[in-house]
Every structure is written in structure tokens, then in C-alpha cells.
Amino acid sequence: IFQSISQALLAISGQLPLLMMGKFYGLEAAGIFAIAQQILEVPTKFVSKSISQVYFSEISSIGTQNTKKIKSLTSSLIKKINYYCVIPLILLVIVAPKIIDVLFSEQWAQAGHYLRPLIFIYWSRMIDPIISMLFLTYERLEILTLKNIIRIVLVFSIFFGGNYLNLTINNILLLYSILICTINILSILYSFLFMNKYLKSQ
């Protein structure tokens, strides 16, 4: 049950920013935001999905009885993602706006400016699937469900609050990116606290 609920909430939280953008800033802004999302999402999703599948296979074969090894593998993998993926992601954010300016009309060139605030969230999203696989292996799906509920509440709060305060789109996207990134970082930290606690209980 928790897995189905968690997956449904994850899907909702993924589409909610686009819906909120359309509601408060119009369909044109939502379309531009969708382009910016796709530019970042396609490469990061490909990397994170590939890595998380290999990771899940590895920790499943290790088994929860060897949490120390799983903890070491998780730590090593997160460091490698940061080492090999952060610089290409930064370069993508720098180069993509210039490419958009050349390939698209001026109307859609704004997508390049939406990219920059989103870098934080897409960096953390490369690591987030690994943490999800970790909790899935330990059958702690309620943690994933709670995290997705928090994400949805945050998205609603950010867009409704931002509209009330008359924040610009870029400021709202920056706030959205930082807060969701913070949730993902806290999830990473909690996963290590969880593994430490699990080790002590063994």
C-alpha cells in the first residue's frame, strides 16, 4: 500500500510545479518552464535511473544483514555522483541558455533563464533515487511517503505564498529549488542516521 501511495505522491509532486506555474503565471510561462525542466531532466534522469538500478541490484545482493557494506557503498556512490556529475550539470546550465537563444525564438529564450535557479534541485535529484532504493530495500516505504507529502505541501506553499507576495518567477523557482533540494539533502542525512541506528540494533 505504502509503495503505491508513495509512487502516486511522487508523480503528483513532479507535475505540481508545472500546474502551479500555469495557474499563477499563465500557459506561456508554464510552457517555458516545461522546456527548462526537460533540458535538465533528460540527462539527470538518465544518469540517476541508470545508477539507482545498479545500486538497487548491488544492495539487494548484499542484503540488509550487511548494513555496514551498504553504508560504505552508498557513501562512495554519492561522492562519485558529486565528483563526476556536478561540473557537467553546471556547464549545462551555463551553455544551455546560449543554445536556446540560437535555436528558439525570443519568446522561448526565457527558458534559459529558468534553468539557473533549478540547478540545486536537479543536482539533488541525481542522488535522491539512490536514497529511495535504500529505504525500499529496508522496507521503510512510510519514510518515502512522508517525504513526498512534504514535497507537495512545500510546492503549494511556495507558489501560493510567492503569488501572494508578488515574487518574480525566477525568485519563486529559486526558492522552490532550494527548499526541495534541502528536503532531499535532509533525506540523505537521515538515511545515514537510519543505517547507523540499524547497525547498533544488529
Q: Describe the largest sheet.
A: none
Strand content: under 5%
Helix content: over 70%
Tally the helices: what do you get? 6
Poorly predicted spans: none
What structural class do helix, strand and pairing data support?
mainly alpha
Number of distinct beta strands: 0
Backbone shape: globular
Oligomer: single chain
Overall average pLDDT: 85
What distance separates the N and C termini? 27 Å
Calculate Rg over CA atoms: 18 Å
Q: What are the secondary-structure elements, in order, as H or E? A: HHHHHH
Tell me what the structure shows.
By secondary structure, the protein is an all-alpha fold. It has helices spanning 2-62, 67-103, 111-115, 119-137, 141-164, 169-201. Helix 1 packs across helix 4 (119-137). It is globular, with a radius of gyration of 18 Å. It starts with a helix and ends with a helix.
Keywords:
6 helices, 202 residues, mainly alpha
Helix/strand layout:
Elements: H1 2-62, H2 67-103, H3 111-115, H4 119-137, H5 141-164, H6 169-201
Helix pairs in contact: 1-2, 1-4, 1-5, 2-4, 4-6, 5-6
Structure, briefly:
Helix content is 89%, strand content 0%.
